[in-house]
Write a structure and sequence with these properties.
Blueprint lengths: L4 E11 L7 E6 L21 E4 H7 L6 E5 L7 H13 L3 E5 L4 H8 L3 H8 L3 E3 L8
Parallel strand pairs: 2-4, 4-5, 5-6
Antiparallel strand pairs: 1-2, 1-3
Helix pairs in contact: 1-2, 2-4, 3-4
The protein binds iron/sulfur cluster (SF4).
């Protein structure tokens, strides 16, 4: 069964810094990738942050923003609930941008056996993929 709960580290309801247009940004809690030089090591732990339902997150997204941006932490480590959330955001006519430390090839491979990953990938309009490289 798909969880309808997302572990959230931080939300900014309106920002123009996280993708095209004005967006609702969610930093999810938990990332096992641990890139050297990561800007958000406080979001690595799987037990911090707060649990929020997909329903409550949808209610919090302003109707007049361009879309939602998912950052981390690692969104694809909570793909089930975030996949449902992303689908609902798109059903409202808003866009979904997702940052992931996994490469698109890794995600496509995982999507073969993980329905949540397939769902979040399919509901993402713009994917920024791959681990953080402090040399770039
Ligand atoms: S994937 Fe993102 S949150 Fe995770 S360690 Fe890398 S830069 Fe940090």
């Amino acid at each position: 069964m798909t969880s309808d709960v997302v572990r959230v580290a931080r939300i900014v309801p309106r920002t123009i810094a996280e993708g095209p247009g004005e967006r609702f940004a969610i930093w999810v809690q938990g990332c096992s990738i641990r890139c050297p030089g990561c800007f958000n090591p406080q979001f690595w732990g799987a037990r911090g942050g707060t649990e929020q339902t997909v329903h409550d997150l949808l209610d919090a997204v302003p109707v007049d923003v361009e879309g939602v941006t998912l950052l981390g932490g690692e969104p694809f480590e909570q793909p089930g609930a975030l996949g449902v959330f992303a689908e609902q955001v798109r059903a409202r006519g808003q866009s979904v941008m997702t940052f992931s430390g996994y490469t698109v090839a890794q995600l496509q491979s995982r999507a073969q056996t993980d329905a949540g990953v397939a769902r979040l990938l399919a509901a993402t309009d713009l994917l920024v993929d791959g681990p953080f490289d402090r040399n770039q």
